[in-house]
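HUMAN: Would you supply a protein with fold tokens?

ASSISTANT:
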Amino acid sequence: MTILQNVDLNGKPYNRFLFVMVMLLGSFTMSMSQSSISTAYPTLMSSFGIDASTVQWLTTGFMLIMCVMMPVSPWLLNNVKFKQLFLMILAIFDIGTIIVVLAPNFSVMMLGRAMEAIAVGILFPSYQSVLLYITPEEKRGTTMGFAGLIMGSALACGPILSAIVLHFSAWRGLFIVFAVIISILFVISLFAIRNVMPEKESHLDFPSVILSIGLIGILYVVNMIGKANIDMTLAIIVLIVSVLMVALFAIRQFKMDQPLLQLRVLKDFNYDLSVGLTGASYIALIVVTIIFPLYYQDVLGVSKTVSGLALAPGAIVLSLLNPLTGKLADKIGFKSTMLTGMFMILSGWLVLSVTGATLGLVPMMIIAAIIEGGNAFVMMPSVTMGANSLPKDLISDGTAVISTFRQILGSTGVLVATLILSNVMDNNVAKGMSHMVAQMGGFHVVFITFFIIELVGLAMALMLRNTKK
């Protein structure tokens, strides 16, 4: 990426390279904070005297709040100067992280995580929208390749960083690292970030905001399924009410002249396919980063530190390929690029489906690298293709929709994987199998399931209309 001197909305020159790097580093840090926390669960359970179902809310609650903030991000981009918005995002995240570091109990820690989630929910769609807006269409693939490098590698690097930091310090040290980085970025942003997005003032439709909370209800029920002592009657009621709220939200967006979220973007077939493909690739990535470490620990018997570090090769491959796949999409077209990625993802799950849970650490690391490498060919190219299918003034709405769907699909994918793993293992134990054999059977069914899911992704890639001119 070359250093470019552009002008902001006031006609003043700014360093585009520094501008983009600050945004991407902010996203990288926040994304790592999202994926690194699970490694610290045992320590947090001991520190606060809580059980596994309670500590899980550090991830579940984060995800719920983040998802409901994503549909609001286009309105914020249109109504708040971007520099002010970006500084506000960094400040909210930093304050939330400091609250986590100083938290005397779990409730206060949850408050800090909620603030972090608000910041992440606004930033993730916003920074992609800005990158797509300020980049000429013929160069968007390359630019978003760098964005994919940040997004994908951060997700994979989170557990690695957590394993290293927790090896040398207490869990608070992990959040101190995030607070220091974000504080430095805040100072740099005072000079590097400029107002580059045109403002289109509109009123905030509070009924739409309230109805969008239905997303929280749906994800809450999804995360409760399969857990012990769940009140099924309450869960069904919450699910029905939440689905109705989301349906009313969608109907309201189509009827309003100035909707909170412009769902008309879904009328473009190529855009719809891009939503599905980014979801399919994200499911593959997030399941690998969560399920593979469990396999390393439970089946192969390695330590938590080793299981976290074993994700490093995949993260490196993902990081190296993302910029290259962006350039490739610009040159040969998005369909060919994404078909390559889906075949890579499928080949990884196919090998696992055929061999079962019998592979050692090194073969599993190679397969993880293949699947994560395939993600580099699909996730950000699909976001870019989706944006190219839309008018420029709808890019922020398009990225918000993609980000929201991706998060929902990714969370559902993790849920499906963990449910299959636990239920198959319990059934195998009930049949008299040893604990180890039962676990291996559970992982094998997970591998087969996600091979089938990614076949759907391949079908969507085959239906794409190639946008290469």
The first helix runs from residue 16 to 36.
